[in-house]
Design brief:
The protein has 11 helices and 11 strands. The chain is of the alpha/beta class and 277 residues long. The chain has a single domain, classed as Vaccinia Virus protein VP39 (Rossmann fold, 3-Layer(aba) Sandwich). This is Methyltransferase.
């Protein structure tokens, strides 16, 4: 068998291995939330101690499944749209949803893109950009004349609050036909992460400065006149059976509002009142 490829990352870039591992573990179940055979093959090819992550979590497969569905919805209406994956890591979204005409752009820090290039091949419709999502220079390389979906899974919580706001407002300014899918963590989780008190198995997450509790997600619309919250959902919605008791407790607003992370879909366009003015 060919030798496994060693991968050495630290800090936030290392989290790409955790999300990859969780998708691979889920994919090998007889009833997976997400089928990701490419993730399974990547894990088999990487020389890394994945055992530190424990037995696997369903949060990352759920996030990938929901974001896939949202992306497919856009591609059903705009087959030539562009999907820009911010903090792409070893995401395999392109392999799961490619319709043959969509364009894909994967953006991440240089060390993460260097790993990605070892497992994913660029094509005319699938490009990679080594840059920080906070550096607006990369936006010049994205065609704003066509609909664009920005995907940021497991990314924004690692930024400072002012940086998150600046990024979303810049995207709203630059891409009037754009939309965005991302996840947010609750305040208590952010606070614990900054004390080094949250993790998976023996792995401790890097600090996560930005948080937004479920009831406050609509406040995003106050950030910019083009930001419209289209959908918000907690991680148990549609998957309650897999969560067991937690899935049903999340139906209680006080518990959901305080403790659950949220999946958010926004679009960048003026609302009806603004459009009429």
């Amino acid at each position: 068998m060919p030798a496994k490829a060693p991968v050495e990352l630290e800090g936030v870039p290392e989290t790409l291995l955790l999300t990859l591992y969780n998708r691979a573990i889920e994919s090998q179940r007889p009833d997976p939330i997400l089928r990701d055979d490419l993730a399974v093959r990547m894990v088999e090819q990487i020389d890394y101690d994945f055992s530190q992550f424990g037995d696997g979590r369903i949060t990352h497969p759920i996030r990938a499944k929901v974001f896939d569905d949202w992306a497919r919805d856009i591609l059903a209406r705009h087959p030539d749209a562009t999907i820009v994956n911010l903090g792409a890591g070893l995401s395999t979204m392109h392999a799961r949803i490619d319709n043959g005409t969509a364009r894909f752009v994967d953006l991440d820090l240089p060390e993460a893109i260097a790993v990605r290039r070892r497992f994913v091949e660029e094509t005319d419709r699938h490009r990679m950009i080594a840059a920080s999502a906070l550096d607006p220079a990369w936006m010049d390389r994205i065609d704003s004349d066509h609909p664009v979906l920005f995907v940021a899974g497991g990314l924004l919580m690692y930024f400072e609050p002012d940086d998150v706001r600046r990024l979303l407002c810049t995207l709203a300014d630059r891409f009037p036909r754009g939309a965005m899918a991302f996840d947010v963590i609750p305040t208590w989780f952010s606070q614990r992460s900054q004390k080094g008190a949250v993790g998976a198995g023996d792995y401790a997450f890097p600090p996560m400065p930005w948080a937004l509790d479920y009831p406050r997600v609509p406040e995003l619309e106050t950030w910019h006149p083009r930001i419209e919250v289209v959908e918000r959902r907690d991680y148990t919605q549609g998957f309650r059976g897999r969560w067991g008791l937690i899935g049903w407790l999340a139906l209680m607003p006080p518990l959901r509002n305080r403790f659950m992370s949220t999946l958010v879909r926004i679009q960048f366009q003026a609302n009806q009142q603004q459009a009429a003015s």
